[in-house]
Amino acid sequence: MQLVPRQRIIDIPTGNKYLGAAELYKHQPFSEVVHYFSRHQMFLKGGLSSSFPTSDIKAPEMHVFYYADGKCKGVEVFNPKGGEDLFWGEVNLFPSSITELRKELIAMGVKVHIGDYGLDVPELGIFTFSAHIEDDLKGEIESIYCSFDVKQ
């Protein structure tokens, strides 16, 4: 899977050999998400959710968040642990530790902020989450929220 910062995620396997890969993008209608990922459930999630339910997709594991009108506003991709990784260009956004991702992004000139639960990278529109973030940032990235609303 490939991240196009603040716009979309492409090359997402649908699990359907007839559909192949799909994409999730800013303002994508809920009906289109259902078309490509028909085996998903819906739930209401606090915080990031509007009054519109969140899509829970199992393969690859992700949550799709919507505006109140049912248009996509962002995607939370969970650590695939050997499955389909998420890339930005050649950079694997799920390396073995938060430290590794931070070093690689900084080496590329990308501004990275350390937040309460992981890294905030506004340039890419991503926020990492680790329940076990430590001062040394050696924790594993559990999920990455890809916002299609972040202004650079």
Protein architecture, described:
By secondary structure, the chain is mainly beta. It has one domain (1-152). It is built from 2 helices and 13 strands; from the N terminus they run E-E-E-H-E-E-E-E-E-E-H-E-E-E-E. It has helices at residues 30-36, 98-107; strands at 2-4, 8-13, 21-25, 40-43, 54-58, 61-66, 72-78, 87-88, 91-92, 113-114, 119-121, 126-129, 143-147. The strands form 3 sheets. An 8-stranded antiparallel β-sheet has the order 4-5-6-7-13-12-11-10, with no helix packed on it. Strand 10 (113-114) and strand 11 (119-121) form a beta hairpin. The longest helix is centred in the last third of the chain and has 10 residues, at 98-107. The protein is globular. The chain starts with a strand and ends in a 5-residue tail after the last strand. The relative contact order is 0.18. The model has no long low-confidence stretch (mean pLDDT 90).
Layout of helices and strands:
Layout: E1 2-4, E2 8-13, E3 21-25, H1 30-36, E4 40-43, E5 54-58, E6 61-66, E7 72-78, E8 87-88, E9 91-92, H2 98-107, E10 113-114, E11 119-121, E12 126-129, E13 143-147
Antiparallel strand pairs: 1-2, 2-3, 4-5, 5-6, 6-7, 7-13, 8-9, 10-11, 11-12, 12-13
Question: Can you tag this structure with a few keywords?
Answer:
152 residues, mainly beta, 8-stranded antiparallel beta sheet, 3-stranded antiparallel beta sheet, 13 strands, globular
